[in-house]
Write a structure and sequence with these properties.
Blueprint (H helix, E strand, L loop, with lengths): L45 H17 L6 H6 L12 H12 L2 E5 L5 H9 L2 E5 L16 H8 L6 H19 L3 H13 L2 E4 L2 E4 L2 H4 L4 H7 L4 E4 L2 H5 L11 E5 L2 H7 L5 H14 L22
Parallel strand pairs: 1-2, 3-6, 5-6
Antiparallel strand pairs: 3-4
The structure holds phenylalanine (PHE) and fe (iii) ion (FE).
Phenylalanine binds next to helix 6.
């Protein structure tokens, strides 16, 4: 049997970290070799659009005081809140703002295909929407998570550059067998990042911003551990995909994030591997000696 080419669509679902026994639900047979597919907009039912409308309303109601200003300013760029947007319309606005585009995908795609798209300033958006039964929680990313959670910050020039750099860094990490370390950076920034603002902590991570309950929890609850952004600390930190996060990392600005991740990661991966070999990985919710916790944002509680 031939060895499958990594990251090229062969009509079967990809294997990814951290997923369970259930196979991904997307139909990979209709995707192109780069895993992108047409958004079949006319195939959405009235119930699909209604699910999107209710999700959008539920989330936008919660944004003031909890989401960062850059996100709030850009969210209306997604277009009419009462139906699933056409990806081409969003792309047109996004292209003008930061040179990014969004492309449809059938669901989760293999890492290398994902990295390649990001490195080309193309953000993959799952085109199906959750069922009404999954209104509050869906295991896999759907169009609401991908679009509402991720796309607004692609309108921010600095964050947009970070995402492209991440994609290029991912292609490099694939060659260095370091994808798992790099995935932790994505998780603790792009998905679950918090940012310190003059008005207190706010959320910028897509996993938080698209979640019914975690948005308020991450910003205001006294429970979770919130630590300052530290690249090597993050690369040692494991995460759970099925509960609210037990810890978050806080950046000062998107500029700080961009600069802290600009150096060549090759020696950093090596160092982190040595640290892990000597001291182990770090479990969620751990505070190490000398680490300072950020207080929750009481103003937003
Ligand atoms: N600087 C990283 C490298 O050399 C690439 C990267 C940039 C990774 C931004 C993540 C985020 O590998
Ligand atoms: Fe996501």
């Amino acid at each position: 049997m031939d060895t499958p080419v990594k990251g090229v669509n062969l009509g079967v679902a990809p294997v990814t970290y951290g997923t369970g026994d259930r196979p991904p639900r997307g139909d990979y047979g209709r995707a192109r070799s780069d895993y992108t597919c047409e958004q079949d907009w006319s195939a959405y039912t009235a119930a699909d659009h209604d699910t999107y409308r209710r999700l959008y309303a539920r989330q936008t109601r919660q944004l003031p005081g909890l989401a960062c200003d850059e996100f709030i300013a850009a969210v209306q760029q997604l277009g009419a809140p009462d139906r699933i947007p056409r990806f081409d319309d969003v792309s047109e606005r996004l292209l003008k703002a930061t040179g990014w585009q969004i492309v449809g995908v059938p669901g989760l795609i293999p890492e290398e295909a994902f990295f390649k798209l990001l490195s080309e300033r193309r953000f993959p958006v799952t085109d199906w929407i959750r069922t009404p039964e999954e209104f509050h929680y869906v295991v896999e990313p759907d169009v609401f998570h991908d679009l509402f959670g991720h796309v607004p910050l692609l309108f921010d020039p600095m964050f947009a550059d970070y995402m492209q750099a991440y994609g290029a860094g991912g292609l490099k990490a694939s060659r260095l067998d370091a994808c798992e370390l790099l995935a932790r950076l994505y998780w603790y920034t792009v998905e679950f990042g918090l940012i310190a603002t003059p008005q207190g902590l706010r959320a910028y991570g897509a996993g938080i911003l698209s979640s019914a309950g975690e948005l308020r929890h991450s910003v205001t609850s006294p429970e979770p551990v919130r630590l300052g952004f530290d690249l090597e600390r993050i690369m040692r930190s494991r995460y759970r995909i099925d509960t609210y996060q037990a810890n978050y990392f806080v950046i000062e600005s998107f500029g700080q994030l961009f600069e802290a991740t600009a150096p060549d990661f090759t020696p950093i991966y090596r160092r982190v591997r040595e640290t892990i070999a000597a001291q182990g990985e770090i479990e969620p919710g751990t505070v190490l000696a000398g680490e300072r916790r950020f207080a929750p944002n009481p103003a937003a509680a």
